[in-house]
What does this fold into?
Amino acid sequence: MYKVIHISDTHLRESNLGSLVGWTKAIRAIAATQPDLVIHTGDIVLDEPDNATDHAFARNELANLAVEWLVIPGNHDIGDGPPRQESICSDLIHRFADTYGATHWTKDIGHWLVIGVNAMLFGLGTAQEDEEWAWLEKALSTASGKPVALFMHKPPFVTTPDDVEHGSAAIPPASRGHLWALVRRYGVQVIACGHRHEYRVLHRDGVTIVWAPTTSDQLDELTSPINDPIPLPGLVEMIFHEDTFIHRFVPFYNRTAND
Ligand SMILES: [Fe+2]
Ligand SMILES: [Fe+2]
It folds into this structure.
């Protein structure tokens, strides 16, 4: 058995109480759960990708966790891709890697292979995007029959792989077909993502897609075009057994600072 705590969208800034209250709860939940690994699927800092002070604070907070952790970048960490095309650039990507160790990674957790991909590059039409797709396919090919859990910031889609809309809620529509072909070809069984700030589970083509909620108080992105969101911050506990995967949503019900 291998236990992962999946957190996302912490949106940290040292002076921002709305994110620090939830972050404190996340730290407590991680300590109580004692996972083998913590994975953060991005939007680590509040809202300024080029704010070095925020990144230094967030890096220090992660370093204080008494457990191994891995992160991948979100749009608030390195800028956004299409359709917003805000500020994603090589400099921010390199700064992210320098601060947190990497922008993508693989980890063998026994019976499973876990991959974190910088899906913020998808749809950019740059050489860096081409390199990321090549890296992902090479990483997937090393699974050698193991089930794969793929972590990324934005969901692969909001409703189905052939979604053509939903703006910046998921990876760009033009990238969904390519990603889904790789997912099917290499036996990805789990996709874990964040970005939408809500917990949700979808099952498509035998793949379980888990959206981790935000740990912060930022629940305002909930949630068109699909209904009935769970309007709570929290995190996700994942258990990887030999050939099965289970998870549970750990909500933060009371968002006061003193509980
Ligand atoms: Fe976010
Ligand atoms: Fe995001």
